[in-house]
Design a protein that fits this description.
The chain is an alpha/beta fold and 289 residues long. Helices cover 43% and strands 14% of the residues. The chain contains 11 helices and 10 strands.
Length: 289
Amino acid sequence: MIKSSFLTLMVWLTAAMMSASVSASPRILSLDWTQTETLLALGVTPVAVAQKADYNSWVKAPPIPEKTVDIGLRTQPNMERLAELHPDKILISPIFKAMTPKLSTIAPVSSIPLYESGLSWTSLKTVTRQIAREANRPEAGETLIANAKQQLASLRDTIPGEQPPLLMIQFLDPNHVRVFGTNSLYHAAISELGLSNAWQNTTNSWGFSMVSTRELLDLDAQLVIVRPLPAGVEQTLKTNMFWQYLVKRTGRTPLMIDPVWSFGAIPSALRFARLVTVALTDPEQGEQS
């Protein structure tokens, strides 16, 4: 009787351990911030990431836990430290594919594209599901997608109707900007809010065009300026006659919002949507440069 009970217990424990090993997330090293933010949003903490301090400046959320190791530059990770961490797999984006042979000596490498065929809400869902599968968390991927849609719908309901098209820019210098078009993360976010994009011209594969501010002159739009501004630009714009004329011509106070990783996935899209919603619904959030 005792022997039978012991055998039953051992079978149960073995089955439980096998189930846990299947469902447990592997030890993942993430070189790309898009994958890092998605893993964290899935509830998976990477064993290591690249450029942790820069992630905290540009991506900001979800925050990287203190215990996660920083293995150096995204383009030049510390290979010795990487080997010491014994990751189960390494996630990269295609931009870092040249490092695949070297990284593969440490752990299997998965390259997950996002911008190869143009970015949209559909492609954001696809990449979320791919990362969730890599982390053995497919259910968490579906939950993240569903929660994002629910949050975006709630934000959409708070935005007053009849909003002008948004002209979303980042300054390169006082006279040149990146302007984000229809295949950008920012566009995917505002589309889910029921807002339109003023920039309909051709963009690069990352979803933006680099143009002179003079090319913005004839657009009837609400300017949305995404921080950070290069050193000295904010002060220069205060006395830049052309910029002041452009702002006056729009008849609207530009909205200034905090940095959002423009090459991100669903977490960054949600962050951008929240910031834009707050700026549109609270006039004090808009700042005129």
